[in-house]
Amino acid sequence: MVRILGIDPGSRVTGYGVVELDGGRARAVAWGCIAPPPGPFTGRLHAIFEGVRDVVSTHQPAEAAVEEVFVHRNVAAALKLGQARGAALCAATAAGLPVAEYAPGVVKQAVTGTGRASKAQVAYMVRALLAIREPLAADAADALAVALCHGQHRGRPR
């Protein structure tokens, strides 16, 4: 049995999801969003770091997985996302967790069967795979998808 922390980083909202894998079965342990308060960007980065650190402390995952940065058009937004991702990565590695990184298309492929799935499709499949009845915030669903993706790929050479 292994417990995996999935992280969907964002400078305004960082999603997290903790999944426990036992053989071929997956169970959602916890999920949610870290929403830093408005204010200086450095304060938001600190809140992301602290939030991930608290999730690790509370749920004791053995491994972590983070979604890679996707750059579409806005370079400034991509830089901020990269910094938020760095804060989350630092928190996970400071806790001694091995961290894997996955491209968004790989995560979508692992959960839905297609690398071009919509956010709604990802959320639907995450809820179905983990038997979650209540609606999920998009960032939390994405984080759970990252954890499930890592569960499929862990131990494989990349």
TrEMBL record:
EC number of this enzyme: 3.1.21.10
Known catalytic reactions: Endonucleolytic cleavage at a junction such as a reciprocal single-stranded crossover between two homologous DNA duplexes (Holliday junction)
Catalytic residues of the enzyme: D8, E67, D139
PROSITE patterns: RUVC
GO aspect biological process, one term: DNA recombination
Keyword Magnesium belongs to the record: yes
InterPro entries membership: RNaseH-like_sf, RNaseH_sf, X-over_junc_endoDNase_Mg_BS, X-over_junc_endoDNase_RuvC
PANTHER family assigned to the protein according to its UniProt record, in alphabetical order: CROSSOVER JUNCTION ENDODEOXYRIBONUCLEASE RUVC
Record note on quaternary structure: Homodimer which binds Holliday junction (HJ) DNA. The HJ becomes 2-fold symmetrical on binding to RuvC with unstacked arms; it has a different conformation from HJ DNA in complex with RuvA. In the full resolvosome a probable DNA-RuvA(4)-RuvB(12)-RuvC(2) complex forms which resolves the HJ.
Role played: The RuvA-RuvB-RuvC complex processes Holliday junction (HJ) DNA during genetic recombination and DNA repair. Endonuclease that resolves HJ intermediates. Cleaves cruciform DNA by making single-stranded nicks across the HJ at symmetrical positions within the homologous arms, yielding a 5'-phosphate and a 3'-hydroxyl group; requires a central core of homology in the junction. The consensus cleavage sequence is 5'-(A/T)TT(C/G)-3'. Cleavage occurs on the 3'-side of the TT dinucleotide at the point of strand exchange.
UniProt name for this protein: Crossover junction endodeoxyribonuclease RuvC
Organism: Inmirania thermothiophila
Gene name of the record: ruvC
